[in-house]
Amino acid sequence: MKRSANAEWKGDLKQGKGVVSTESGALANVAYGFGTRFEDEKGSNPEELIGAAHAGCFSMALSGQLGESGLTPDSIRTTADVTLDKVDGGFAVTKVHLTVKAKVPGADQAAFDKAANNAKAGCPISKLLNAEITMDATLEG
Asked: Which one of 6, 27, 34, 97 has the fewest beta carbons within 10 angstroms of its own beta carbon?
């Protein structure tokens, strides 16, 4: 399986602008730039897109882990907070914190925690990132 996305950038780093698109068309010419990445300007940025990918990947992985225990979630809501820090030689994504809230009928806390930790470690996007990945996972009643 192979998926594709592309980006086009025009201009210098601070004044230039770019767009990103996906092969599926789910994203089409989504604008980004220096201001949306390093300042508070409205618009997208690579870290936000990584967060969306990680939250989506993790939620699917958690559903799969729960399914292996015979549990089906009513809902899994995941937020991925991606931290971009200035480090020696430039910038790096250093951390991702996942905040997960799930409604899973019949799940006890131990089974949920095990599934959440397995999903955090096993999700392909988690494996891709060279960053500290932390998590707060809440099983809701």
From this structure: 6
**Contact predicate 10/18, CB 8 Å:** yes
What's residue 123's pLDDT?
A: 96
- Give the pLDDT means over successive 10-residue stretches in the chain (141 positions): 95 96 96 94 94 98 97 98 93 96 96 97 94 95 85
| Distance between CA atoms of residues 59 and 116, nearest Å | 9
Question: Nearest Cα to 47, choosing from 116, 119, 101, 95?
Answer: 95
Pairwise CA distance, residues 65 & 111, whole Å = 10
The strand ranges marked E within 2-141 are 5-10, 17-22, 30-33, 75-87, 90-103, 132-140
Angle at 117 between CA 116 and CA 123, to 5 degrees: 85
pLDDT given at position 82: 97
